[in-house]
Design a protein that fits this description.
Structural class: mainly alpha
Keywords: Metal-binding
GO molecular function: metal ion binding
Helix content: 55-70%
Strand content: 5-15%
Number of strands: 2
CATH superfamily: dinb family like domain
Largest sheet: 2 strands, antiparallel
CATH class: Mainly Alpha
Order of helices and strands: HHHEEHH
Shape: globular
Strand order of the largest sheet: 1-2
Family: Belongs to the DinB family.
Pfam family, one: DinB
Radius of gyration: 15 Å
CATH topology: Four Helix Bundle (Hemerythrin (Met), subunit A)
Distance between the termini: 21 Å
């Protein structure tokens, strides 16, 4: 299971980096694109903190300028890769509170799967917004990563 998650989060970092490159080269900041990219980074930070039994240091929808959003996405992506590579078990239950203060218990493997899928979902939304601006989004399907 560890090898699966190591590959999945290497892919996540690769895909986030590809989008960060395009977003960083945009001539004009797009608030919706930055809002979604910031959200990807925030979610990665929040879920990693929950996995490590820490408190949330960022809000789910906190927004950043281009440089900060890219920096946070990069740092949180690499931190997730490190977490996965150092994890000893993926079947433990994580107890946490969501952004509304409700307590939940979720398996670590389910959280990790959610984080990876969550990023993919929002990168897809960003790709649509880039196309509307006549900017070609990066190819970021998993198959492109493994080829």
């Amino acid at each position: 299971m560890k090898a699966h998650y190591q590959k999945l989060f290497a892919y996540n970092t690769w895909a986030n980096d590809r989008f960060a490159e395009v977003i960083g080269q945009m001539k004009v900041s797009d608030t919706e694109i930055l809002r979604l990219f910031s959200h990807i980074a925030n979610a990665q930070v929040i879920w990693l903190e929950r996995l490590q039994d820490q408190y949330n240091t960022v809000g789910v929808w906190d927004e950043y300028n281009t440089e900060k959003a890219i920096e946070m996405a990069k740092e949180s992506s690499l931190a997730l890769e490190t977490f996965v590579s150092q994890a000893e078990a993926f079947d433990n239950t994580v107890v946490y509170k969501n952004s509304k203060g409700h307590q939940f218990e979720t398996g670590a493997s389910d959280i990790l799967t959610h984080v990876a899928n969550h990023g993919t979902h929002h990168r897809g939304q960003i790709a649509t917004l880039l196309r509307k601006k006549e900017i070609t989004p990066p190819a970021s399907d998993f198959i492109f990563f493994v080829r």
